[in-house]
Amino acid sequence: MEQRVDFYKASPEVLKGMIALENVVGKLGLETSLLELIRLRVSLINGCAFCVDMHTADARKAGETERRLYAVPVWRETPFFTERERAALAWSESLTLISQTGAPDEDYALVRAQFTDAELVNLTLAINTINAWNRFAIGFRKMPVA
Question: For every residue of the chain, which 3-state class applies, written as one string?
Fold first, then answer.
């Protein structure tokens, strides 16, 4: 597959905004491991090869285990994730697939039980941000470096 547009070069102002948003997400107080899990899960759902590659590498650097990384696609069927992580993963799936899920009350109840109001808003921003990155990378065919 060939890259369509180098979006980093094509519109530096847009990328400055995206990077600023990503920097905000990094300062919201959510656990790095949690952020990497949701970035990975959302990228897997969206089929973003570039982001899956980047976030598995970033998660490993942050201390994530191979076993848990391999289990992210099947997180519901494994005992490897905390209740907080499970709630965040469910909320990530609900929002990423919102046209199919409508963000159901069941998923909201799970995340509500694990996150404060501020954390829930912060988590939602993090989910929205990785979805936006996925759309840039997929739309413009950004490829992982071999």
Answer: CCCCCCHHHHCHHHHHHHHHHHHHHHCCCCCHHHHHHHHHHHHHHHCCHHHHHHHHHHHHHCCCCHHHHHHHHHHHHCCCCCHHHHHHHHHHHHHHCHHHHCCCHHHHHHHHHHCCHHHHHHHHHHHHHHHHHHHHHHHCCCCCCC
What is the C-alpha separation between 57 and 41, in angstroms, rounded? 14
All domains in the chain, ordered by first residue? 11-139 (1.20.1290.10)
Structure confidence by residue, pLDDT tens digits, 94-134: 999 999 999 999 999 999 999 999 999 999 999 999 999 99
What does the pLDDT read at residue 105?
A: 97
